[in-house]
Structure formats: structure tokens, C-alpha cells
Amino acid sequence: MLAVQQLEAGYGESIILRNVTLTVKPGQVVCLLGRNGVGKTTLMKSIMGLLKARGGSVAYNGTDLTKRAPGQRAKSGIGYVPQGREIFGQLSVYENLLLGLEASKTKATSIPEEAIAKFPVLPEMYTRRGGDLSGGQQQQLAFARALASKPEVLLLDEPCEGIQPSIVDDIRDVIRSIKSDGKTAVLLVEQSLEFVKSIGDYFYILEKGAIAWEGGLDALNDEVVRKYLTV
Amino acid sequence: MYLLQLFNGLSISSILLLVALGLAITFGLMKVINMAHGELIMIGAYSTYLTQNIFKAYLPASMFDWYFVLAIPASFAIAFVVGLILEMSLIRFLYGRPLDSLLATWGVGLVLQQLARSIFGAPNVAVTSPSWLDGGLMIMDGTLLPYKRLFIIALVIACLVAMYFYIYRSHEGRRMRAVMQNRDMAACLGVSTRRVDAMTFAIGSGIAGIAGCALTLMGSIGPSLGTYYIVDAFMVVVLGGVGKLVGTVLGAMGIGMFNTLFEYWTNASLGKVLVFVCIVAFLQWKPMGFVAMRSRSLD
Predict the structure, then answer these.
(1) Domain residue limits at A26
(2) CB contact under 8 A, B190 and A103
(3) Closest CA in chain B for residue A72
(4) What is the DSSP letter of A133?
(5) With an 8 Å Cβ cutoff, are B174 and A70 in contact?
(6) What is the pLDDT of residues B54-69, one digit of tens each?
(7) What is the C-alpha to C-alpha distance for residues B156 and B14, in angstroms, rounded to an integer?
(8) Where is each ABC transporter domain found (chain A) (predicted)?
(9) Which DSSP category does B129 fall into?
(10) Which of A168, A151, A197 shows the shortest CA–CA distance to A31?
């Protein structure tokens, strides 16, 4: 279980997140919603360790990760698909995937079947450079790379941003199949309400860097949407 | 006659390349302006000198010729360790601060020079080349290719091949390229960026050590050996294009060949001037050097 307690974080002098508390239980798909600039990506970066927490804690399965480096968090079982995909452009697709194995607990040297089975286009492009792929292909690569280490929690930061509808559907299917496997929990940041409603189990809404609302699918009614999400 | 000039050019290119290879890693990949690179070369040269003295003192004279075979890994290892210490004690605090690292590493260079002066004395010391590198290959009347220069060319090729396999074909090299391209993402995937930085810098330093070892074949060595080569080394890396091995090879070939040809056509000092003019003109035309990284990923 991933537990964030009263987290405070920010860039330089400015504090972005205040008193954020959320939990992701095993096998759950938890969605993080909110308007632009409320701190969703900042929260993801703080959970991953790219931003140092000013206060509060991030813990995974009871182990406090607040002072740990991103690499150690990855090795404890947290996978990350960042906003903008962050593919290594000069490395081949295959090398990108192999780097996904760095955090795996077993000493695997080949990419696990289940990581790429969901993305049949990838093996055809193994020798191409990551930077030469299209945005949608890069997104699939970023997914497969994160799945290669068999993470127990997957952080997905806007996986459908700027991607054609058919691949958005593919990605939805992938998240669904991850959910039905039940081995990996997901923390998903996403703008499309329709998308998150179709797969989410539990929802948090951020406003001005704090959790403004949380609840299950039934509670996420039009009034909540109007109050916190409509621009 | 042209054949000999061509060989001379190739020989100078190979020395330039060997001197610049280490810098292609520390400056080209890691973007550390390492002014102490020359002193790491000097350390490699003195390591060879030490290996020679140990062989002279403790082993029978018949074994002496083989000291050089041991001197190459020894200079790599000693420069590697010095580089590792340098990275862990100083350089790691200076990543992303080019001006500070320029000044700090220059200072380190001066300290290392003085240290060499204190230990080995200010005058140059001579390293006796092994006898199997004396003489040369006679390819036609009046055209003799010295074995020493051929050996340096072979050594450069061996270093290049080893570096290629390390950087592009090994696990460590893959981690290294990932960290240099996108440090944060590599960290998020579980790569230990501190370890990669330290290893990368140390390997760059070790290769500088090998260069120093090779330079002992060209003449006597002294504490300020490195200062003669540091400018050339930076020129090769910048001209070749930062971040690519192929670029460094092209840069060294370009400078070495033109240097020889211009000196042949004019004289030594005018030739050097012409080479500099060409480099300046070329960098006006292509500021990124011969091989610039261009890809969708960098846009």
C-alpha cells in the first residue's frame, strides 16, 4: 500500500503542495483529478522522489521512503510513466526497455513477456531510436518500460495527453488489464473525466495544492464535477 | 614523399585522438570542463616511469622489455583511481556549474603538477622505450615507418574499440548513456546516477592515463607534460562535436592531417596558424562541430 501523509512540497521558495494525504491500496486504480496547475504532476514527482518533500511522508508497505532517492523508490516497487513520456531519444527502443529492468527485484536480463504483450507494435521497432518514434508509440514504450520491472504501484501522469483516440483506447485497455490482473495498483492523473470514470475505483480531487474532495465512483456526481473540475 | 606525410598526419592524429578520448567522455558526455585532464595524462606518464623503475630495480634485465605491457594497465588504473577520488571529493559538487568547475579543476591541475614536482623533481625524466619498439617498418626506399608510431596508432584503435563496446554494448554503458541524456528519468527507473557519474569520470581519467603512457614513447616527460596537450584535446572534442565518439575521431583526424599538410607546404609556425584559422572558420560555419546530435528527441 502506498501511503502519502500530510505531504508538503514545492519548487525553490514556493510551496505547491500542502497537507496532501492519500492512499493507494493494492490492486486499486486511484485517480487524481483537478484543474490545470493545482499540483497533480508535482505530487507525482514528490511521490517518485524527484522533488524533495518539505514535510510529511511517503511510505510504501510500511517503509518510509521520504528520504530515499528515486532509484531506491523504483526498486521498492514503484513504476513511473511521467508526463511527456521522457523516452531516452538517443537509445534504441530495446535499450529503453532494458533500462526498465534496472529496478526489477529479480535479476532478469530479458524483458518480461507480459510487459510487451500489450504493445505488439514495440518488438517490430526494437532497433529504432526512441526519439524517432511518434508520440503515441513513445507512450506505449514508456508504459512497457515501466511495466518491465513488474512494479506493484504504477504512477501514470497524463498517459493520454496528445495521443490519437485509437491509442487512447489501447491505453485504457492496458490499464484495465493491469487492474484485472490485480498485481499492480495504479495512481492515475488524467484530465478526461469520461476516461477516469470508466476505470477508476477511487478519486481524489486536488485544488490549490490540497486534497479538496475524495470519494468513490458513486459519489463523483455532477455537482462535484461542477464545483472542482469545470473550468 | 606524400605517403610519408600521410603517415605523419595519421600519427599526429592518433596522438591527438588518444589525448582527447578521455576528454570526450568527461567533457563530451558529462559536460565537465576538466582542466586537470592534462595532469591526468601526466599521471599516466609518471605511472609508466614508475613501472619502468620497478622493473629495473627488481626484475632481471631480460624481463625489462616487457615492462611496457604492464605499464599500460598500470597507468590506466592509477589515473582511474585519481579520477575517482577527484570526482567523489570535488567534481560531484560542481555538476551544472561550468565556470566553477573550470576554475576548480584548473586549481587541481596546478596542485597535481606541484605534487609531481615534489615527488619526481622539476627536471624531465626519461622513459626508456622497450627495444621491441625500436626501428621501423621499411615500406620502400627512404620511407621508414617507426614501430613506436605504429604502436600508438594500434593502441588508439584498441582504446576506441574498447570504448565503443563499453559505451554502446555493455550494461554499464547503457546506464551511462541514459544518465547523460535524461538524469531524472534514469534515476526514476532505478539507475544509481551517483555510481554512474563516478564510474564515467574515472574511466575518462583512466583513458587519459593510457594517453600519458603512450606519450612516454615520444620523448622525456615532466610535470608540465599535460599543459602541452590540454588545448589540443579540447579543440579536438569541440571540433568533433560534443557527445559522440565518431566526432572526436573526425576532429582528431582533421586537425592532425591539416596540421601535417600545412606544415609541409609552409613551415611549422605558419602551419599551426593556418590550422587555427581553419578551425575558427569551421566553427563559424558549424558551431556544433562535425557530428551534432540531431533528433526529434532533442526538439
Answers:
(1) 2-228
(2) yes
(3) B190
(4) S
(5) no
(6) 999 998 888 888 899 9
(7) 6
(8) 2-231
(9) P
(10) A197
CA atoms within 13 A on the CB side of B60: 2
DSSP A130: G
Residue A69 in grid coordinates: 532517492
**How far is residue B152 CA from its own chain's centroid?**
12
* Residues of chain B neighbouring A131 (CB-CB closer than 8 A): 295-298
- Helical residues (DSSP H) of chain B, grouped into ranges: 2-23, 37-58, 67-89, 98-120, 147-169, 171-181, 183-188, 193-215, 225-240, 245-265, 268-285
Which residue in B has a C-alpha nearest to residue A74's C-alpha? B190
Q: What's the structural domain count of chain A?
A: 1
Question: What is the SS3 assignment for A159?
Answer: coil
- A58 three-state secondary structure: strand
C-alpha dihedral, B83 to B84 to B88 to B89, nearest 10°: -50
A contacts of B298 (beta carbons < 8 Å): 89, 131
- Interface confidence, given as ipTM, is 0.90
CA angle B23, B24, B28 (to 5 degrees): 110
Element (H, E) at A57: strand A53-60
Angle between helices B37-58 and B67-89 (to 10 degrees): 140
- Residue whose C-alpha cell is 541514459: B178
Residues 140-199 of B with CB under 8 A from A: 174-175, 177-178, 181-182, 184-193
Cβ of B295 and A75 within 8 Å?
no
Q: What is the CATH number of the domain that holds A60?
A: 3.40.50.300
A106: its cell numbers: 529479480
Q: Which of B8, B50, B41 is nearest to B23 (CA)?
A: B41
DSSP symbols for B186-204? HHHTT--HHHHHHHHHHHH
